[in-house]
Amino acid sequence: MKLNIQDTFNKELPADPNKNNTRRQVFEACYSFVTPRVPSNPEVIHVSKEMAENLGLSDEDIQSKDFLEIFTGAKVMEGTEPYSMCYGGHQFGNWAGQLGDGRAINLTEVVHKNQRWALQLKGAGETPYSRTADGLAVLRSSIREHLCSEAMYHLGVPTTRSLSLSLTGDQVLRDMMYDGNSAYEKGAVVCRVAPSFIRFGNFQIFASRSDTVNLKKLTDYTIKHFFPEIEGDSKSNYVQFFNAVLDKTLAMVIEWHRVGFVHGVMNTDNLSILGLTIDYGPYGWLEGYNNNWTPNTTDRQNARYRFGNQAGVALWNLYQLANALYLLVEDSKPFEDALERYKTDFSEAKMKMMRAKLGLTLEYEGDVNLMIALEKILELTETDMTIFFRLLATVQKTTDTPESILEKAKPAFYKPEELEGQILKDWKVWLKNYLSRLKVELQSDEDRLTQMNLSNPKYVLRNYMAQIAIDAADQGDYSIISELHEVLKQPYAEQPDFEKWFAKRPEWARNKVGCSMLSCSS
Ligand code: AMP
Ligand code: MG
């Protein structure tokens, strides 16, 4: 197996001089060297071939002993020096101090076809940043991360990727619902891949310690490698950098809204500086459309990270990043300006995204009201977001009526019998307005269907789908992981063989742990 290794992070940035794997506070360093733990009986159970190809790996490479050993932590590649990053973060709104890669170990960086990729094992044992935890990951959460990152990529949502999913052969003790019921679960390792895993928290940790020297080193490094359009290192470059991060973060959240994704733990240590969806933990997909929904049971009370709050939280997180970068600029005005424009930019971007979801190519002032009204009626009775938009695309603007559209959209409603009285009336009003709005469009029904189907996925990784794959994998059957990976590669296409995955959440999954209820335990 030949990878084009070109390390930069652990070559150009300051290292922790202490090479012992003991838990500690690490100062004036971006990372600590650490060796992955050797798994007792590793087994690769799924590989994303698309990701492997990006790295220049062939089918033969994937089957090799090297692949198994390197991507499970059994062997360190020659010429590489694995490390864990030091970062801090605001967790649920409070500054938590140093966090760091508690169970992530960066193996190396690879350049293939002009693209830089950092390879990182998640769950390969303790690091200096493990704090009170074990540095391991269990099979269920690793399946969720592996499948979802690849599904998000194919949906066109900016995300970190996943190369491989492996069992370690070790047992890991977890109290899944934090209720005193600990049990052993199968240990697993995912090899995550992204141009870089740098987070907001990497900048925050230096700022929190007034370490401007290293804050500057990290920022210059990030700009040089990942924002090459920004040249030089004057103060205005740091402002440009902040603006670029703001744009990317905003674009990412818009995409989450488009596909109905709830991240679940938008702490600043879980926000990528490249605007990639990162750290797939207690995330979830909207089934019934609900702005107040969060899958994360740890956040049930305040629902800080609920679907409808993600744009606001992203802005809050950007404030924290601005506070850190301020140390390099010493002028708050440009940051305030950037944060101020976020609100208008977000509204505009959301409108654009919603127009595409609704098949509207022209811009009308009244569209804002149409969109606001839609968000309200979708919540009146439980309505499956994915199915609803997909079926709405089949509207025939001259022959359909509100009644006939409701009939077509019936499979999207969890309790169609609730469509009566005021709820029914509200739905009909909206559909009537939508039909009138479609009539001013020049597009044919057919073209609108094609266009809408590019914005509205048919297949997403519904929470219960991942759970079915997990339950089977626990019994040693990995076929559902492969099947889901396959269907989610073409989320916008009609795939008659996979029609069964275009279905509402079954009733058994409504209140099941792992489906609608997820804790941070992973
Ligand atoms: P999260 O909320 O999952 O992003 O995790 C917050 C922090 O806890 C990060 O620094 C993680 O690296 C760390 N962490 C989470 N789970 C573990 C674990 N099992 N062992 C060590 N560190 C962990
Ligand atoms: Mg994290």
The pLDDT mean sits at 97
Question: Percentage of helical residues?
Answer: 40-55%
Bound molecules: adenosine monophosphate, magnesium ion
| Biggest sheet character | 6 strands, antiparallel
Query: In DSSP terms, counting alpha (H) and pi (I) runs of 4 or more, how many helices?
Result: 17
How are helices and strands ordered from N to C?
HEEHHHEEEEEEHEEHHHEEHHHHHHHHH
Radius of gyration: 23 Å
Description:
There is one protein chain. The protein has 522 residues and is of the alpha+beta class. It has 4 domains: 9-200, no CATH class; 237-356, no CATH class; 362-442, no CATH class; 463-509, no CATH class. Helix content is 40%, strand content 13%. It contains 17 helices and 12 strands. The chain has helices at residues 9-12, 49-54, 59-63, 65-70, 139-155, 200-208, 212-226, 235-259, 310-329, 333-358, 367-377, 385-392, 402-408, 421-439, 445-455, 463-474, 479-487, and strands spanning 31-33, 43-47, 83-85, 88-91, 94-98, 104-112, 115-122, 137-138, 161-174, 183-194, 261-262, 284-285. The strands form 4 sheets. Strands 2, 6, 7, 8, 9 and 10 form a 6-stranded antiparallel sheet that branches. A hairpin with an 8-residue loop joins β9 (161-174) and β10 (183-194). α5 packs across α16, α6 (200-208) crosses α9 (310-329) and α11 runs antiparallel to α14 (421-439). It is globular. The two termini are 31 Å apart. The model has no long low-confidence stretch (mean pLDDT 97). The protein binds adenosine monophosphate and magnesium ion. Residues 269-270, 279 line the site of magnesium ion (MG).
